[in-house]
Design brief:
The chain has eleven helices and nine strands. Strands 1, 2, 3, 4, 5, 6 and 7 form a seven-stranded mixed β-sheet that branches. Helix 4 packs antiparallel against helix 5. The longest helix is centred in the middle third of the chain and has 37 residues.
Length: about 375
């Protein structure tokens, strides 16, 4: 299979890369230090119609495939991982979910404003202190007329506190456990932010704890099919976040190669040292495989094939590969890599957070083993 980019794809990637370098990269360092949410970039991304990818023209979007979305995640991730996470949460976890499962009325109500950047999308899945639908703070939903009333708390909400509209997973049938979950659209005006989460990495990617108190929610899809919807959201998000990781890892590798050629030790560049060459080779090998797996999984989405297991295998590899790439980059840079004055330590922190903010690292192993042993 040829991996060579078509001329049109090259233009798309160049447009994304130019925008990321001009708009996202200059703010990455300061926003990371201050944990400032870069709200101004939402409109700038929308003005380029990047939020219109995969969204039908009738709602303001245009025909684009998920591979293009992965390219967006990669190029944004190379420049600014946190900004990339904001964009992917909005487009992949919120917009695309409303597009697939929303009614025509819901799509008309939300998608045009989301494509234009007038409404930012968020995603609420995890709950504080316990697994989903099991703790004292679990979010339950009770039907009241044409809508539902949601009560409980969500933790590590993606784009939490900054979003205007959330896709929320809540329990509608307690007796059925995880099979009694449903998905909802909730407007931010009806939700209380109880805590903004200060994180090790992805610091300007807003993550918060939300409280729902008889909050109005619109059912998304059918009642009690929330687990299916949540799995789809997680699978698409894992592919998108792996692409972010590939972009950030690429930046770390490029900086490491450059540093190895210019850092002189014992009279010659450290690139002459076999130990450094081995570290660079490991980084490049991991990145090559990560890119291959990421775009293979994205192609499964575009082909309307079952992409769930592809995303699980990808996540398991990505979380290990990106950690190793980040670690090797710090090692090659020595004290400079550990200093907050350089970009390398930020790459390391961001790569570490891409895959475990709202789920345990062993999640892929559990799914893969279960699939093998069923």
């Amino acid at each position: 299979m040829s991996m060579k980019l078509t001329e049109n794809r090259q233009l798309v990637v160049k447009s994304l890369a130019d925008f990321a370098k001009a708009v996202l990269e200059p703010i990455a360092y300061d926003d990371d230090r201050s944990a400032r949410v870069p709200e101004e970039i939402i409109k700038k991304i929308a003005d380029k119609n990047f939020f219109g990818m995969t969204i039908p023209k009738e709602f303001g979007g245009y025909d684009a495939d998920f591979v293009s979305v992965a390219s967006m995640a990669e190029e944004f991730g190379k420049a600014n991982s946190a900004a990339a996470a904001i964009a992917m949460t909005h487009l992949v976890m919120a917009e695309q979910t409303i597009l697939k499962y929303g009614t025509e009325e819901q799509k008309k109500q939300y998608l045009p404003d989301m494509v234009k950047g007038d409404k930012l999308g968020g995603y609420a899945y995890a709950e504080p202190g316990a697994s989903l639908a099991s703790g004292e703070n679990k979010v339950s939903a009770v039907k009241r007329g044409n809508c539902y009333s949601l009560t409980g708390k969500k933790a590590f909400v993606a784009n939490g506190g900054a979003a205007d509209v959330y896709v929320v997973i809540a329990q509608t049938n307690e007796a059925e456990g995880l099979n009694g979950l449903s998905a909802f659209i909730v407007d931010s005006d009806d939700v209380k932010v109880t805590k903004n989460t200060d994180k090790l990495g992805l610091r300007s990617f807003p993550t918060a704890e939300l409280e729902f108190t008889e909050t109005k929610g619109q059912l998304l899809g059918k009642e009690n099919e929330g687990l299916k919807i949540a799995k789809e959201i997680q699978a698409r998000a894992d592919i998108a976040f792996a692409a972010i990781g590939a972009g950030t890892a690429k930046a770390a590798l490029e900086h490491s190669v450059k540093h190895s050629k210019t850092r002189v030790q014992f009279g010659s560049p450290i690139s002459k040292l076999q130990a450094v060459q081995w570290l660079l080779a490991e980084m490049a090998n991991n990145l090559h495989i990560l890119n291959t797996l990421t775009y293979k999984a994205a192609a499964f989405v575009d082909a309307n094939e079952d992409y769930f297991m592809e995303s699980v295998y990808l996540k398991m590899f990505a979380q290990k590969a990106t950690f190793e790439i980040g670690t090797n980059a710090v090692q090659i840079h020595g004290g400079t890599g550990y200093s907050r004055e350089a970009k390398i330590e930020r790459y390391f922190r961001d790569l570490r957070g891409l895959f475990n903010i709202d789920s345990i690292n062993e999640y892929p192993q559990k799914i893969i083993a279960g699939n093998l042993l069923k």
